Amino acid sequence: MTQESAYNDEESFELNLGRYFRIILLQSKMVFAITLAGFIIGISNYLLTPKTYQISSLLQIHSPNQSFDPRQSFNLDFFNAPETNLSNLVTLYSSRSNILDLIMGLNLNLKFVNPDDREFLDIKTFLFKKDENYIQQIFYLNIQNNSFNLLDDKKNILIEGVNGEYKENDHFKIQLNFPNLSSEKLIELNYRNPSNLYNSYKNKIKIDNLGGNRNYWSQEGLIEISLITNDTFEGKSIVNLANEIFIKDNIKVETEKARASMLFIDSQLESLEEVLNLRKLELKDFKQENKSLNVNLEVQSIIKTISDIEREINLVDLEISQAEMNFTKDNPLYLNLKTQKEALELQKNSIEQKIKKLPIAQQEYVDLFTNLEVSEQLYSELINRRLNFSLMEASSIGNIRVVDQAFVKNLVGPRMFSVILLSVFAFALSILIAIFRGIFFIKISNPAELKDAAINDKILGVIPHIENLDKPAEENISLQQSIETLILNIETIFSATPNTEQIDSCKKIVISSPTPQNGKSLVSRHIAEGMSSIGNKVLLIDADLKRGGQHNFFNKESIDKDDFLNISLDKIENLKVKNNFYLMPRLKKLKNTFEHLYSDQFLEKIKELETFFDYMIIDTAPVLSVSDTGLLMTFSDMNILNVRHQINKISEISQTKKIIEQIGRDFDGIIYNDYSKPKGFYGYYDLYGDYSYKYYAEKYLYDDYYHKKDDY
């Protein structure tokens, strides 16, 4: 059982793939057109869109040289982790002041109405001193000989100047370079508010942190500056000037920090110098008073140790005072300094205990010498630091350097790969559209498509396209042959039934279709006529009570309910059309057709007529239009679905079958009506469609009965 289920699943999978493939082939023109359109759009975009490039530059951030020596002062400005420092630098790079300086430095807010004028005019300075409320202003430059006039939009003179000369008034700062002209030239300028361009250029400039040294005490790393533009010259100018502005600002900050540190050190040196002189004098006086004092090696060792500890405590105190201005009391760095000081004080207390065991004179000498030495060391330390800061101020180097000047890194777009990608996308999209249209919108064009869609009902016959419907069926050989084969298929189904009573009784055949205009009335009429011509008594019932028109083909009138009730076997000749062929026309003026078909009167009348006829062909309304058909199928002996070539959709046929299955019935077969071989599908019907049509036509129309293949 499992193997059979797996085989069915595999067969269903192959069937669906085959169906999708044939749906795509059927719409190959559309697939080709969409793919070609995608290729044309891609190649047009590639040829017509200006090429854009990535301009890049590399900056290195480094920290000042300093060793991790606990006896030296820590620079607390570098206590943050490298990522934090680099992140701050990235933010500073794109600060508002830097971006505005960049815009003004390259006159990016100045647009030439005629781009050719940019090559003629070199603008060194052009600043409009006005409040920030304006968006843009129009100005005109009137240049002649070696001078120029700046005009407003009403051609009023705002400022005058000469070539290369800097001019300034209450509203403008301007300096221009241009060739000497003998004739007058007027240049129109669009001056945009730099503040309104800030966000635009901030977003254009991309800054990437490429990482750096992970040492906690350093702030080294690399940052990449990039810009996407179609003007490589302007792009490189923007990146280079942005780097220059950023580095100058960094040098300015470092210089100001160095200057502030020097002022602080100078203030400390002034007071410390007085203390140092005082302690020198105290030690000198003590030595003169105690000339006989013996200072041994132990005392000298104590003096050196206590001096070192005092110096370290003083340095830590300095760092703690700076940390209190930059950090909270809970900061780990602040707490680390406090812990370090406590450890030094413990060492100092231990030494002081040793000092207390010395003679009084030696204790006093140790105190005086230690104080003097600590003051000298601290004074020397401050002198060295001031020298370092003065060198930093004078060097004007800063801690940022340009590794790579702005250069064209790569082409951003358009690329030829985008043409291929767009073509592939268009092809994939066309395939999806083709499959979607094929499943839900494309009309059926070959009997083989029914099986592809898992509609496995027996195909009773294929009716060819008829050019002249008024022509009698006897004169149309292909139609007549199709009807005869169709009748043979119907009789074969009935003859195969094991119920002998049904074989001898009247056989009721319901013929319907999914939608109107499918040709079910034509097929019903020809089947009825064909069966009557071979000796069967046939009643054609026009049960399409909304739009039925069978009576029009036989010059009959429709009947009302009273006429229907008066039908009897005694008056059966009133329904006769010709030998063995009878017609019950559509009932008119019915208020409720479903109620009529469900009534006992209708069912009893049908039972009464069954005793006289061999076949009843019931031409019903379309299944998807009204519910009457389902009711008629509940008491029929055979149900036939008529589908029409290039009219019905697979989705409509499937929905029709589901509706009938819901009432517990099914179709016994399908008639494929109005078939004609489509043209112009790139060999689709030569490779698949025509073969399948022959397969279905020969299998279901001829082989079962004639055991041979005739040309159709």
Write up what this structure looks like.
With about 700 residues, the chain is of the alpha/beta class. Among the domains are: about 1-50 and about 415-440, no CATH class; about 280-395, no CATH class; about 460-705, P-loop containing nucleotide triphosphate hydrolases (Rossmann fold, 3-Layer(aba) Sandwich). The protein contains 22 helices and 20 strands. The strands form four sheets. It has an eight-stranded mixed sheet with strand order 13-20-19-14-18-15-17-16. Strands 2-9-4-5-6 form a five-stranded antiparallel sheet. A four-stranded antiparallel sheet has the order 10-11-1-12. Helix 2 runs antiparallel to helix 11 (about 415-440) and helix 13 crosses helix 22 (about 685-705). Mean pLDDT is about 80; it is low at about 1-10, about 65-85, about 210-220, about 680-695 and about 695-710.
Topology, element by element:
Elements lengths: L1 H25 L1 H21 L3 E10 L20 H12 L2 H10 L4 E3 L4 H4 L1 E7 L7 E10 L1 E5 L5 E6 L4 E2 L3 E6 L3 E12 L1 H11 E8 L8 E9 L2 H58 L7 H30 L5 H25 L3 H36 L4 E14 L2 H25 L7 H5 L6 E6 L12 H19 L4 H5 L2 E6 L7 H14 L4 E6 L6 H4 L7 H6 L9 E3 L2 E4 L8 H6 L1 H11 L4 E6 L7 H6 L4 E7 L5 H13 L6 E7 L8 H23 L6
Helix pairs in contact: 2-11, 4-6, 4-7, 7-10, 8-9, 8-10, 13-15, 13-22
Helix percentage? 40-55%
CATH architecture of the domain at 459-706: 3-Layer(aba) Sandwich
Q: Largest beta sheet, briefly? A: 8 strands, mixed
Secondary-structure-derived class: alpha/beta
At the fourth level of CATH, the homologous superfamily of the domain at 459-706 is P-loop containing nucleotide triphosphate hydrolases
Strand order of the largest sheet: 13-20-19-14-18-15-17-16
At CATH level 3, the topology of the domain at 459-706 is Rossmann fold
